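Can you give me the bound-state structure? Components:
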Amino acid sequence: MHELPVTEQILKVVLDHARKAEAHRVVHVNLVIGDLTTFVDESIQFYFDFLSRGTEAEGAALHIRRIPARVRCHACGGEFAPDGVDWRCPHCGGLGGEVLAGRESYIESIEVE
Amino acid sequence: MRKVEVVTDIMSANDQIAQENAAALQSHRILAVNLMASPGAGKTSLILQTARALDGRLRLGVIEGDVASRIDADKVAAAGIPVVQINTGGACHLDAPMIRQALRALPLDEIDVLIVENVGNLICPVEFRLGETLRVMIASVPEGHDKPYKYPGIFTAVEAVVINKMDLAPYVDFDLDALREAIRGMNPRAEIFEVSCRTGEGIDRWADWLWTQWQAHRSAK
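Here's the bound-state model for the whole set.
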């Protein structure tokens, strides 16, 4: 349910950039979201469709590039992608480590006319 | 059609205000703790125990976040602690503008440590920075030891995990070593505290850590 205020922020950034670029229509919005964040793609698109009505971004398609979680094992230093609830290092069997990727959440670009 | 580079964090509008909050708190040398947990994990109880343990050493202030009611704020006020209640009216988390508003109603010159009790929720609060110095979560014994794997967002984001209701451990299926191993695995830098707000067990170590953090924060530029 926190996707509503989050999507309000996304729309604001999109419209600011579209207006700065003197665009009259936003066709695509490219987002980058890590798998360790709590954002739900379908909810963001749902709220975006609702909030963007009557703006330059009405009807724009959101493209969400998901960044998988990536961890550096603190036992052996090897890198791995946790598989769901399994945070065990496939190289040495150690549990977890430093999160290298998966917490991203930004608007990469928009495509406008 | 043309492409316009944006590269702006989704949370940038909130984060901007969070930075202003952080600056306001820093100017009063206040250490701010964003306390997150499930409903019923013991957030208000931990605040009351912390106030007791730090009495005479540090002056506490509290912001209470709930969907509705003043129940928690009344408990905190009854202990003589300055408190502001935020009712989010349905929102599942606190955000930086709500904190900015609440700070205006607190006697900042009389507070050393501000504890912000977030809305009971392990998901939404994680994405909203408030201007806090530290993010702390409570994981209570009856919730079980497998929660880090189910809620990696919060467990990888916090500076400390307080395991509360340790007095219930003998009565429920709970594996303390498994929980500790999971937290260590996902967030090796997080401090772990085992406490019981009911018996007072472990509260001193947690309060001493807060005291150390406050001293470090106070001397930092």
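A couple of observations. Helices of chain B lie at 12-27, 43-54, 71-78, 96-103, 147-150, 152-155, 176-186, 203-219. Chain B has one domain: 12-219.
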